């Protein structure tokens, strides 16, 4: 085997290793075991105190901004996204004072080290 063919073989084996590593990493991320950077990851426990606090904040801020009187009933589902902090995308069941209920999607940006929360969107589904 010549030096050139040895170099090509080494390069080929290295490329296979890199491709295998990348595909394993992506496959794990899509299976929920390892999130993709910047991607949304389902929240496993929407009843956690942290998620409930974010939902209460979202409804309270929406009520202030829209001059409404929604009451949080429950968090139906949610996802998080790692950014400079964490984005929470929650589906919230809420009712207004007149008995009308519905689901809403709220996105809240949280930076706990700065004690910062910001409602970035809130819409009826």
Automatic annotation (TrEMBL):
A Pfam family matched in the record: SQAPI
Native source species: Camellia sinensis var. sinensis (China tea)
Domain Cystatin: 35-125
Secretion signal span: 1-28
Gene3D superfamilies linked to this entry: 3.10.450.10
Superkingdom of the organism of origin: Eukaryota
Protein name: Cystatin domain-containing protein
InterPro entries the record matches: Cystatin_dom, Cystatin_sf
Keywords noted in UniProt: Protease inhibitor, Signal, Thiol protease inhibitor
Gene Ontology MF terms in the entry: cysteine-type endopeptidase inhibitor activity
């Amino acid at each position: 085997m010549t030096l050139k063919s040895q170099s090509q073989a080494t390069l080929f084996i290295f490329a296979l290793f890199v491709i295998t590593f990348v595909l394993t990493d992506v496959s794990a991320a899509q299976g929920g075991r390892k999130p993709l950077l910047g991607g949304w990851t389902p929240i496993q426990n929407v009843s956690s105190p942290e998620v409930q606090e974010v939902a209460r904040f979202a409804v309270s801020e929406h009520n202030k901004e829209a001059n409404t009187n929604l009451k949080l009933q429950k968090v139906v589902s949610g996802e998080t996204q790692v950014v400079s902090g964490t984005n929470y995308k929650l589906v919230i069941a809420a009712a207004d004072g007149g008995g009308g209920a519905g689901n809403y999607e709220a996105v809240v940006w949280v930076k706990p080290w700065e004690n910062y929360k910001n409602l970035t969107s809130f819409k009826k589904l």
